[in-house]
Amino acid sequence: MGTTPKVFIDGEAGTTGLQIYTRLSHRDDLELLSIAPAQRKDLTTRTELINAADVAILCLPDEAAKESVSLVTNPSVKILDASTAHRTADGWVYGFPELEPVQRQAIATARFVSNPGCYPTGFLACIRPLIAAEVIPTALPITINAISGYSGGGRKLIEQYDMAHAKQPGPMSSQPYGIYGLRFGHKHVKEMHQHSGLVHPPLFVPAVGDFDQGMLVQIPLPLWSLDNPPTGEQIYATLASYYENEPFVTVMPFNADIPLRIGTFLDVLGVNGTNQVQIFVFANDATQEALLVARLDNLGKGASGAAVQNLNIMLGVSESAGLAI
Q1: Active-site choice (59, 118, 258, 283)
Q2: Is 2's pLDDT higher than 90?
Q3: SS3 category, 46
Q4: 37: exposed, middle or buried (C-beta count within 10 Å: 0-12, 13-18, 19+)?
Q5: Which residues, including other chains, have CB under 8 Å from residue 216's CB and lie 6 or more apart?
Q6: Residue 152 — very low, low, confident or very high, per pLDDT cuts 50/70/90?
Q7: Is CATH 3.40.50.2300 what the domain over 6-115+303-315 is classified as, yes or no?
Q8: Which residue did the predictor score with more confidence, 173 or 100?
């Protein structure tokens, strides 16, 4: 790469693209290649910019992301895809640096990197270390209950909520809470399954809330169903050791007495504006029950923050450049 790496965001007008552009626009250690609004769908211009970049970041629908990859003719161009198109594809490195001890190096040397999804980031952060350490068996049936701010639904859902808020300002002015993915087969499930090491895909129940950003991913563990169930302390110690030196994943104190915002609720907004994943372990050894919770900003570590972190690794610069811890 040259002295000043060139970065092109293909799809910078979308939710994730705008967030990445904002995070990168103030940096003087890279050069952002921009496309004029009138040329965003011009194939010739996009092709020229993609091939002029050291790293092209794709913030596009899946089919458009695949098209962008097909436009690459310069063998030195690296691709970071923020869509779901390549998260389980052969030849692509999964861009979750904390997933495995070798993952960071794999990202650094890869030409093609897929940025993880927001829900899978929270899920995998909790489950993968327990599978790797054989604390829970790979055949354990896993259920995920999760809620995200409406910004996770993209431009159309954001507009829907913003219009409702404009008509009736204040909380609960739109649908306060709703589950979806009720026909199963949500696009994140294959990603969760492949990168977790589980034998069976998890049963995933996502939900959207009447707040713009923030996310809680909850994984109940019926430990009583196991022949040799781990204690809550064992689960906590495994996670704490796995992430001991990770700046962007924090394992909170076991059965944490959490600073609460309202009543006795765990605040979904607690790490907004950061690139953090916080992991909580709650357990009752007497009833052999445990609950894992990941809290993250769906626009931060769940999307644009993770993309910037991966970009930094791919460029060989400080991993935290441009990121709020």
Answers
A1: 118
A2: no
A3: helix
A4: exposed
A5: 122, 146, 147, 266, 268, 293, 294, 295
A6: confident
A7: no
A8: 100
For the chain, give every residue range classified as CATH 3.30.360.10: 119-298
Question: What CATH number should be reported for the domain whose range is 119-298?
Answer: 3.30.360.10
Q: What is the pLDDT of residue 183?
A: 87
Could you tell me where the beta strands, DSSP code E, fall in the chain?
A: 6-10, 31-33, 55-58, 78-81, 93-94, 112-114, 143-149, 177-179, 203-209, 215-221, 249-251, 277-284, 289-296
Instruction: Quote the tokens at residue 197.
Output: 């090491």
Catalytic site includes residue 118:
yes
CA distances from 250 to 240, 275, 292 (A): 8, 11, 13
CATH 3.40.50.720 residue window(s) in the chain: 6-115+303-315
